[in-house]
Amino acid sequence: MPDSLWSQDSVIHARGLTKRFGAFTAVDGIEFDVAPGEAFGFLGPNGAGKTSTMRMIGTVSPVTAGTLTVFGLDPAHHGAQIRSRLGVVPQADTLDNELSVLENLLIYGRYFGLSWGESRRRAGELLDFVQLTERSGDKVEPLSGGMKRRLVIARALINEPEMLLLDEPTTGLDPQARHLLWDRLYRLKQRGVTLCLTTHYMDEAEQLCDRLVVMDKAKIVAEGSPRQLIERYVTREVLELRFNHEGGEAGDGIGGGGAAGLAGADRSTGEGADFDGQLAGLAERIEHLPDRLLVYTADGDATAAAAFERGLRPASVLVRRSSLEDVFLRLTGRSLVE
Amino acid sequence: MNALRLSVPAAVTRPTRMVERNLLVYRRTFMVIFSGFFEPLFYLFSMGFGMGALIGAVQLDNGSSVPYAVFVAPALLASSAMNGAIYETSNNFFYKLKYAKLYDAVIATPMSLSDVARGEILWALLRGSLYVVGFLAVIAVLGIGGLGLISSPLGILAFPAAMVVGFGFAGAGMAASTFVRKWQDFDILQLAIMPMFLFSGTFYPITAYPPALQVFVQCTPLYRGVHLIRALTTGTPDLWMAADVAYLLVMGLIGLWIVAKRLNRLLLA
């Protein structure tokens, strides 16, 4: 598609977008477009440049080089106009601890220029939407992490934004809180709100994003829908082999006993590289994690059987469908992941 | 209603939203604000009337003599305006900037950093004006009781003059706060405020100093504020008042300019 067409339709349009802090390059010439109504994600390890990118989009960080337009506007000259149409959910909860839950929303509406009446009307609706109506008179401080996050999302919606910027929206939340949040974000998407989010959770990216880019070391290393990325970068299935470090137990555990199991397990206490030899030809690729081997293959069961025949006696065997996590490991290298 | 709202430029309406935010906070803790009201009154009673009984009359710049309380009251008003402005723009502003991260959230809205800075200065002035009005009211009541502390109709102008003092110190205080890294740094600020309060011709005429030191004291901002307000309440206006006002306004404006620059650096990285 020609560049000019993209920039007209795109909610966000970035070409050669760069952010430098002194000698350090946080974002290095990235290019992407976000379409209206789309849920777009930045996936990447910590320090990949996701937050810097989000801050530039939110017009609170000047662009060092390249082109960036948001709603077709230049952040350097139309910051206030852009921000009036954005909802921002920052990584850290920047709630006003000196105000109550309801007052946090009311004053935020005022910052956006709403009348007190309109602000009050919307605040009531939003507290309902994020299930915090009962806490409306409470101080913010004692709220749980999940509640605070929901309040930040409600706050970001007070101006009825066309796009929501979410920087790691569910980091640090328990599973229930995450699912509740995902549900609310999904509903917003249904209403036509464009979502632009960063995450290092694969399940979150898979759940929420129509399309995503994988960022690593300030650059975009892949782009596509979650399914496309999985198809492009990994095999259909993954065989996970786990070996106990005490060889004897591993052998006993499998019930096979014998020298082969012991031998294999002993080697696993080394670098594990010898497994590559034993599994040669069985897999497209093998990833060594500290606690297990990931064997990328089209048919996990068949590969497991073949490995067993070659004398490998892992303590546990798991065959699963490949996921975005595998794509992530492949593209960014596991050593970077915390 | 809407048409009216639109006719007021955003550069005026936006800063007032910071004031609204602070009003929401202080709605609950109004007593905190009142504490600042009593401090200058305590000084007035102890120094002005207590010590004043021992001291008797004091000579003003123009040679006329006034009772000590009349001499010290305008100085306390100027100091109160300074303290109110400094308190709001140092500790409170620093807390909101560094710890509460309040402004990080505010600038994600159409509010700009200058809106924030102007709004907080405006709030500091409003808060200071409460103290000034309170102090002036007490003086007026004492006047009715026969203890006339304001001897000139010009005294009416003491209120706007105190606001000018507040503006000067609010701008300077906020600018200083943007350079503060930790709470202990505020001790250094106090090291500037405390001597100014004690030695700026507040409690005695600066003719007590050798000439060189007099010139130095005359160059300090609180001295200018004290001179301005004392000239008004004692009815001894002179041309230096123009210099007082200019000095304090320029100090406030430069402060505001520094604040905008510094906040840009701190928050818009």
Q: What does the model show?
A:
The complex is a heterodimer of chains A (338) and B (269). With 338 residues, chain A is of the alpha/beta class. Chain A folds into 2 domains: 3-225, P-loop containing nucleotide triphosphate hydrolases (Rossmann fold), CATH 3.40.50; 237-321, no CATH class. Chain A has helices at 3-9, 50-57, 79-84, 101-111, 116-129, 145-156, 175-190, 202-208, 226-233, 247-254, 258-268, 274-278, 300-309, 324-332; strands at residues 12-21, 24-34, 39-43, 65-70, 86-89, 163-167, 194-199, 211-216, 219-224, 237-242, 285-288, 292-297, 316-321. Chain A starts with a helix and ends in a 6-residue tail after the last helix. Helix content of chain A is 39%, strand content 24%. Chain A has a 6-stranded mixed sheet with strand order 5-6-7-3-8-9, sandwiched between helices. Chain A is built from 14 helices and 13 strands. The model of chain A is unreliable at 1-7 and 247-271 (pLDDT under 50). Chain A is globular, with a radius of gyration of 24 Å. In chain A, a hairpin with a 3-residue loop joins strand 11 (285-288) and strand 12 (292-297). With 269 residues, chain B is mainly alpha-helical. Chain B has one domain. Chain B is 75% helix and 2% strand. Chain B contains 11 helices and 2 strands; from the N terminus they run αααββαααααααα. Chain B has a two-stranded antiparallel ribbon. In chain B, strand 1 (57-59) and strand 2 (65-67) form a beta hairpin. In chain B, helix 4 (68-99) runs antiparallel to helix 6 (113-144), helix 6 packs antiparallel against helix 11 and helix 7 packs parallel to helix 11. The mean pLDDT of chain B is 89. Chain A binds chain B through residues 21, 58, 60-62, 79-81, 83-84, 86, 88, 90, 92, 94-99, 103, 106-108, 110-113, 115, 155, 159, and chain B through 1, 5, 10, 13-14, 17, 20-21, 24-25, 100-102, 104-112, 267-269.
Q: What characterizes the major β-sheet of chain A? A: 6 strands, mixed
Overall mean pLDDT of chain A stands at 85
How does CATH name the architecture of the largest domain in chain A? 3-Layer(aba) Sandwich
- Helix count of chain B? 11
For the secondary structure, the number of strands of chain B is 2
What's the N-to-C terminus distance of chain B?
38 Å
Strand order within the widest beta sheet of chain B: 1-2
CATH class (first level) name of the largest domain in chain A: Alpha Beta
Strand order of the largest sheet of chain A: 5-6-7-3-8-9
Distance between the termini of chain A: 38 Å
Which stretches of chain B are poorly predicted, pLDDT < 50 over at least 5 residues? none
Mean pLDDT of chain B: 89
Query: Number of DSSP helices of chain A?
Result: 14
Largest sheet of chain B: 2 strands, antiparallel
CATH topology of the largest domain in chain A: Rossmann fold
DSSP, total strands of chain A: 13
Helix content of chain A: 25-40%
CATH superfamily of the largest domain in chain A: P-loop containing nucleotide triphosphate hydrolases
Note the overall shape of chain B: globular
Order of helices and strands of chain B: HHHEEHHHHHHHH
